[in-house]
Amino acid sequence: MKIQARYAILLAMLFAACSKEPVTPPLQPMTANTANSAANVVTLSETFESGTKGAYASGNVTLSSGSWNMNDALIGNLAADAKSGAQSVRIRNTGSITMNFDASGGANTISISHAVYGSDGSSTWQLWISTNGGSSYTQAGSTITSSSTSLQTASFTVSVSGSFRLSIRKASGGSNRINIDNISVSSGSGGGGGGTTPGDNDNMLLGNPSGAVANTFIPANYLMVKTYYTLSYNRDRGGPNWVSWHLASSDMGSADRQDDFRADNTLPSGWYQAGSSSFSGSGFDRGHNCPSADRTSSVSANSSTFLMSNMIPQAPNNNQQTWNNLEGYGRSLVSSGNEVYIIMGSYGVGGTGSNGTATTIDNGHVTVPSNVWKVLVVIPNGSGDLARISSSTRVIAVNTPNVNTVSSDWKQYRTSVDAIENATGYDLLSNVPAAVQQVIEAKVDNQ
Does domain 197-440 sit in CATH 3.30.1490.100? Predict the structure, then answer.
C-alpha cells in the first residue's frame, strides 16, 4: 500500500473512533488487474482493539465502529483468547453481540474471524441481520462451527442495499467459549453478491471465497491482486488463506523455472515478510499455491509464483508427489482443450514434515496448516465462461492432510466443495448462479 493511502486510512479510523460512526476506508488505486478488488467498498470494519468490557453480564461497549451490546460476552485479552491483535470478543453459553447502531452503504460480503477459546470444545454460532433498525432479524447463511484454536474466516454472501445491523449469536456448545474478531462488511463484487462481475480469464472470476478486502485493518483476510493470481493473505499466519487463478493454454509456454524465492515487499508496511530461507531446516517445503509450471508463458509470469506470499509450509511428500501429480493433471486438462479455474488454500494448525510435527516455523512467524485443499472448475475452451458453468460442469475438489505419509494418489482425497466450505467457512464459487452451485458443490468427482 502506498504511504499516502496508509495515512489516509489511519486518519479515517481516528475520526471514526471520535465520531462513533462506521468508517469506509479509501479504495485502493485501480490498475488493469484490480477492477474486481476496487469494486469492494468497506461499509463496516470492527477489530475490537478499542473498548473495554471485562464481565459477561449484558452491557453496551463503545468500539471504533459504534456501540455494541454484549450479552454473555466480553472483550478478551488473555493469552487463551484467539485474536489477531491485542483483543477479541469472547462469547459463552448462548450469548451474543449486537450493533446498537445502523451501518450504511449496504452489504454483499461479510467476513468474520472465529475460533474456540483456549482448550474449549467446539461450538456453533450464527450471523443475523436487521434492515429495520433492529426491530427484527433474519439469519444470514448457514450455522458456523468453531473448532479450531486459531482464527478461521467465515464468509457470508448477502444482499443489503441500505442500512443494516449485525448480531452474532452463539447457538450451541454450552459453556464452551468462542472468540470473534475482525468483522468486515463490504459492498461490491468481491463475494459474488452484486456489483460488477469480472470478465473471462479473470483470476477471481468465480468469486472471493472469504470476502477479502485490501484493508490493513483486516489483517487476517487481506486481498492482494497480482497480475498472475489473486490471494487472501493472513498476516497472523504469515501466508495465504487461499490463492485463485485461471489456467489456459496461453499460460503454458517455454519459460524456465526461475527458482527466485523471495519476500513479497508489497505487503503492508510493518508486516512480517517471510524470506527465501524462512522454511530452511523446518522439514517443510516452500509449497506453491499457484504452481510454477502453471505460469511458464514468460519469465515474469514464472517469477511471480516464487513470492513467499504464494507459499505454505508443505510436507515434502505432499508437495513433491501428491500435489505435483494433481497439478500435472490440471495442466493435462488444458492440453486436452479445456480451461480451468482453480482455487487452492489451506487451513488448520499442525502438519508433519520430514522432521516431525510442527505448528509453526520461522520463529513462530509462519503457521503450518493441517490441511491443504484445491478446487478445479473445468470448462471447454470458449468465451462467456461464467455463463457456461452448468450443473454438468466437472468440478474436482481435493483435501489432503499436510503430512509426509500422504498417498501420492491425489484421487484418494477427492471430496465435495460443500465439505471444503464447511471446513473453512468460505463461500467458494460464489459468482456462479445459486441453483448451479447447489448441484456442483455437492458432487464428488469420480472421473
Answer: no
